[in-house]
């Protein structure tokens, strides 16, 4: 079942075409990622989808509702992570959750939310006194207070330490298991790779690729890099293998770029010639490589 359909969405700010004929579908129960460089139009898109901004053209349906005319109904059924926003400084963590729950048609139990997002020990702490990571956890928790059917998370793990990131990913996976659909706007390639069932790569207001993280990478035929060390000097034959695109040597360190089953073929040829390096390894292309190939830009810039 399609939970979100965005069809030929357009949105301009004066002379800036922020979103230009953008289309995608989000299916029930998936974690759908929107990846793109700064200014690609991700936030504008997600704001239009949530009914926070009016589109100039195209159609959007979320849970069968039109966000432009049924935003009130929609807000009862979706959750949204606050971004760069702050709560009153003296508001305590538990009070913030109770406040948001008071507006929800189907609020979840506040203690359960505090426990799930590891906020129990902070329940009486004022918002002002929270660290960046703790605030982030609170913003995520608040997105789930109204038992949303679809939740929008923007830069989910910004400011979290590596352990907290992994714990957050695990919780989001559990939330998917509970049947909630998740839309994730992210700059983090590893997050998209680890968490998302499908990813839309957005650039200059358009979707330039949409697939599972694995198929995005595989579909581009990007090279893998095989590395190993050897003192053997006669390796020119390696470059003649069909799968090998190039070879570089720095002392004993060998680096081979190639596509397809490059590791298996290089390994078997080396062994056949009695060269058995102990450190043979392969670096497969990642979503980051795919992103660079698709947009020509580093996502962090
Ligand atoms: N309120 C606004 N007024 C004018 N221009 C805007 C406004 N909001 C966004 N823009 C412009 O529209 C384009 C898309 O912005 P948007 O915030 O949707 O991109 P984004 O992909 O979310 O970027 P980022 O990753 O930096 O948050 C950018 O060129 C931006 O400068």
UniProtKB/TrEMBL annotation:
Keyword Translocase among UniProt keywords: yes
GO BP, sorted A to Z: response to antibiotic
GO cellular component: plasma membrane
Gene3D superfamilies from the UniProt entry: P-loop containing nucleotide triphosphate hydrolases (3.40.50.300)
InterPro entries in alphabetical order: AAA+_ATPase, ABC_transporter-like_ATP-bd, ABC_transporter-like_CS, ABC_transporter_ATP-binding, P-loop_NTPase
Residue ranges annotated for the ABC transporter domain, each copy included: 4-229
Chief location category: membrane
Annotated membrane topology: Peripheral membrane protein
Record keywords: Antibiotic resistance, ATP-binding, Cell membrane, Membrane, Nucleotide-binding, Translocase, Transport
Compartments (UniProt record): Cell membrane
One Gene Ontology term of the molecular function aspect: ATP binding
Protein name as catalogued: ABC transporter ATP-binding protein
Organism: Trebonia kvetii
């Amino acid at each position: 079942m399609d939970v979100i359909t965005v069809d030929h969405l357009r949105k301009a700010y004066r002379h800036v075409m922020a979103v230009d004929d953008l289309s995608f579908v989000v299916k029930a129960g998936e974690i759908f990622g929107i990846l793109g460089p700064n200014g690609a139009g991700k936030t504008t898109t997600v704001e239009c989808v949530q009914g926070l901004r009016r589109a100039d053209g195209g159609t959007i349906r979320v849970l069968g509702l039109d966000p432009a005319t049924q935003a009130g109904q929609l807000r009862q059924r979706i959750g949204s992570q606050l971004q760069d926003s702050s709560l009153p400084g003296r508001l305590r963590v538990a009070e913030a959750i109770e406040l948001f729950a008071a507006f929800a048609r189907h609020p979840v139990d506040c203690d359960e939310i505090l426990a799930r997002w590891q906020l129990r020990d902070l329940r009486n702490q004022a918002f002002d006194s929270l660290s960046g990571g703790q605030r982030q956890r609170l913003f995520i928790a608040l997105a789930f207070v109204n038992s949303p059917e679809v939740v929008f998370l923007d830069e989910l793990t910004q400011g979290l330490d590596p352990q907290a990131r992994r714990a957050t990913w695990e919780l989001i996976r559990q939330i998917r298991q509970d049947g909630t659909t998740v839309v994730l706007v992210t700059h983090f390639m590893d997050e998209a790779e680890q968490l998302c069932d499908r990813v839309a790569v957005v650039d200059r207001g358009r979707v330039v690729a949409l697939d599972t993280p694995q198929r995005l990478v595989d579909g581009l035929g990007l090279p893998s890099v095989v590395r190993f060390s050897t003192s053997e000097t006669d390796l020119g034959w390696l470059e003649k293998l069909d799968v090998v695109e190039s070879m570089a040597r720095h002392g004993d360190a060998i680096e081979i770029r190639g596509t397809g089953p490059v590791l298996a073929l290089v390994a078997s040829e080396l062994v056949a010639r009695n060269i058995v390096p102990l450190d043979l390894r392969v670096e497969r292309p990642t979503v980051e490589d795919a992103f660079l190939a698709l947009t020509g830009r580093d996502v962090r810039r």
